[in-house]
Amino acid sequence: MADKQPLIQPDRGQDAISIHLVNRDGLGDWLKQLSTSQRAALEAQKFDGGGYQTAIVPDGDSWFAVGGVADPENLSSWCMAKLAESLPAGTYRRAKGVPGPAVHGWQTAQYVFDRYKRPERPVGPRVLLTQDVGAIDGAIAEAQAVCLVRDLVNTPAEDMGPAALEEQCETLAKQHSATLKVTMGDTLEQEYPMIHAVGRAAARHHAPRLLHLTWGKEGDPVLAIVGKGVCFDSGGLDVKSSTGMLLMKKDMGGAAHAIALAGLVMRAGLPVRLHLLVPAVENAISSNSFRPGDVLRSRKGLSVEIGNTDAEGRLVLGDALQRASEEGPALILDFATLTGAARVALGPDYPALMAREDATAAALIDAGRAHDDEPWRLPLPDAYREWLNSDIADTNNAHGNAFAGASVAGLFLDKFVGDGIDWAHFDTFAWRPQAKPGRPKGGDAYGLRAAWHMLKGRFGGA
Length: 462
What we know:
Layout: E1 8-10, E2 17-22, H1 24-31, H2 36-44, E3 54-59, E4 62-68, H3 81-86, E5 90-94, H4 102-108, E6 126-130, H5 136-154, H6 162-176, E7 179-183, H7 185-191, H8 193-199, E8 209-215, E9 222-227, E10 229-233, H9 242-245, H10 253-268, E11 273-283, E12 295-296, E13 304-305, H11 313-325, E14 331-336, H12 340-346, E15 352-355, H13 358-370, E16 376-377, E17 395-396, H14 405-414, E18 423-427, E19 431-432, E20 442-443, H15 448-459
Parallel strand pairs: 1-6, 2-4, 2-5, 5-6, 9-11, 9-14, 10-11, 13-17, 14-18, 15-16
Antiparallel strand pairs: 3-4, 7-8, 8-11, 12-13, 15-18, 19-20
Helix pairs in contact: 4-5, 5-10, 6-10, 7-8, 8-11, 10-15, 11-14, 13-15
């Protein structure tokens, strides 16, 4: 996205094209400032101040742009995104005000996934100036984190398997002088048996592994971030339909969120001892696939009967959450593309949030609402815990009815989080089925900004 040059830059009075933001209520008064020909130009473009409308207005030998917004006094992350998508390459500034939160959508609107296909008509960067210089670095980092999630999720499984996720973590570790430990093979089978069992059927170059990055001072509060890294999910022996498999390159979306969030934490220097854990596997089909009815050992010692091999994400997360719990963390956050039930309940735009502590849930929701990334809380009801009972093991990995699928998956994860630990779980879609301004179709981040701003509020900056 912004690899070549920052799309948000300090306003030092350099030449730039003005952008006027108006809404329908204020359009009449604003039009009085314009000439007859300028008003005619707006009318010809059918501009009436509606949200996401854009227009270009001649102004002597130059021109200015106009964007329709809901409220010019209270901008959202996305209100200038359509302008960033549609205006010609160049440098712009908001007339009479700073862009504020709209700098986020201005950047993410210019995201293009071009690893395999170059745009037919590439457009140069649209740079936005702002006098709020102190907010620029953070805004750029946040937008880059979102676009990293998009890049990782959009990349097909052959090029974004467990080894590629390891490379991402290696890059992150080098950037921030962190330590990365990779557990594979016989050691993985002994120490993280559920991760190994889920991934053992994959080809050698997609072999399962646990990626564990650590950063920060030993004495600081421990923050654990865990992300489901199922790089492709066939469903295992409980095989998905071809339609159900079509988007399963995105099943590592939780890992993408976790990696991006860890990068934000380290870049900002939050005073925490960070543990990033990514169980990276491919749920493949082979002669050594784990089977329905098998009983797996877990790192925690619980035995798990497999009611469904397509409920594999919670298995790999279980071992990773147990490892995270061993650090005595002040907080564990996990991200996973875990259940279709969450999408049936909430659709793509709202990540399901489950949390042990009401205060933590409220902080995440408030941070998300303030930054246009609101999660929606679902319960972890004790009444449904019995649905995971097994006749032959400590627990089943799936329940036998169609009720409360997202919450029951959360209850399974809860078994592997240590007693008394503050823990929150995002069941996120990681995919945008239809484009919106600033948010193209494809891989996307849901809950990332909510989590990031909550963490800044909780732990503060360095």
